[in-house]
Design a protein that fits this description.
- The chain has about 110 residues and is an alpha+beta fold.
- About 35% of the residues lie in helices and about 35% in strands.
- The chain has one domain (about 5-110): Alpha-Beta Plaits (2-Layer Sandwich), CATH 3.30.70.
- The protein is built from four helices and five strands, in the order H-E-H-E-E-E-H-E-H.
- Helix 2 runs antiparallel to helix 3 (about 70-80).
- The protein starts with a helix and ends with a helix.
């Protein structure tokens, strides 16, 4: 895999309040070719600070594989389909991995 391809591949993480929201967002991203793949975790416990208090919630985590240049559109799509006022949308650059898998991500996203 070329270093150039690697530098463009990203993983984006988004937490969702329930499986229905997670599935809706995952399908939207895949249908629009904003993501090659979205994994949905079954249930995670999140403990976080919100408006001056420590909160706790059961959520689902989306692990989205895509391209760096699509991040702005991914964020817009998540916000349009997410009930949270401030949804978590964070991107991590994929620093390495299977050449074939990274190439697949590049091929399946527009």
């Amino acid at each position: 895999m070329s270093e150039r391809s690697q530098s463009k591949a990203i993983t984006v993480m988004v937490t969702c309040p329930d499986e229905e929201t997670a599935t809706k967002i995952a399908r939207s991203l895949a249908t629009k070719r904003l993501a090659a793949c979205v994994n949905i975790t079954s249930r995670i416990k999140s403990i976080y600070r919100w408006e001056g208090k420590v909160e706790e919630a059961n959520e689902h985590l989306l692990i989205i594989k895509s391209k760096q240049r699509l991040l702005k559109r991914i964020i817009e799509d998540v916000k349009a389909n997410h009930p949270y006022k401030t949804p978590e949308v964070i991107s991590l650059q994929i620093a390495g991995g299977s050449k074939e898998y990274i190439d697949w991500i590049m091929k399946e996203t527009s």
